[in-house]
Amino acid sequence: DFLFFWGAVFLVTTTLVAFLKKENEELIPAKEETKGITDTYRLLFSIIKMPAVLTFCLLILTSKIGFSAADAVTGLKLVEEGVPKEHLALLAVPMVPLQIILPLVISKYTAGPQPLNTFYKAMPYRLLLGLEFAFLVWWAPKVKHEGGFPIYYYAVVVLSYALHQEGLYSMYVAIMAFNAKVSDPLIGGTYMTLLNTVSNLGGNWPSTVALWLVDPLTVKECAGAQGHTCATAAATEV
């Protein structure tokens, strides 16, 4: 019902914008280098061939490998250890005001001439949070009782998630600020879209690989079936 309602709102509002919003044709558009789709892709190709852009793309595509597993798998592992999904969903509620405030605070530190300094400083903290999340998963079965999990466990999870949001937004806002700063104003939209797309890809592909590797890297034991390792899906089925 939640998804249906907001899906309907999304469709209605975007349709109203499409039909009711009119462009201001009196303003003379600034000169742009691109006139169509072909020109845009040709321009993107010429941008990405620049040595500095290639180096930056390589760095940003690999910078999030270190904490991708912790980010992608922790929630699933907590559910596997018995933490109810609805409780994890409720823990996201206190994060909402934090997600609104953090970009406003962090933007003060990324507005200067070197916005990536914030990115560099946040990196070791996010790597350490990977160990913290691993501890949370290891700790879950130790504190679990018949009634569920104690309040102090949830308090530690909320605190860990809050620290995670701080590191995440520090890196996110820093990258956005850097992309805005280095993009050529003449083709700002095209330039920024390219860099932001690479940045998003740099966060998505390591998470996908981490999720794919969970099963083959998980050590399993078969109860009551000697000689079976349960290492493969077929062996587990047997």
From TrEMBL:
It is found in: Membrane. One of its GO terms (cellular component) is membrane. The keyword Membrane applies. One of its GO terms (molecular function) is acetyl-CoA transmembrane transporter activity. It is a multi-pass membrane protein. Keywords: Membrane, Transmembrane, Transmembrane helix. GO terms for biological process: acetyl-CoA transmembrane transport. It comes from the Eukaryota. The chain crosses the membrane at residues 6-22, 43-67, 87-106, 118-139, 151-175. The keyword Methyltransferase does not apply. PANTHER family: ACETYL-COENZYME A TRANSPORTER 1, SOLUTE CARRIER FAMILY 33 ACETYL-COA TRANSPORTER -RELATED. This is ACATN protein. It comes from Cardinalis cardinalis. The lineage of its organism: Eukaryota, Metazoa, Chordata, Craniata, Vertebrata.
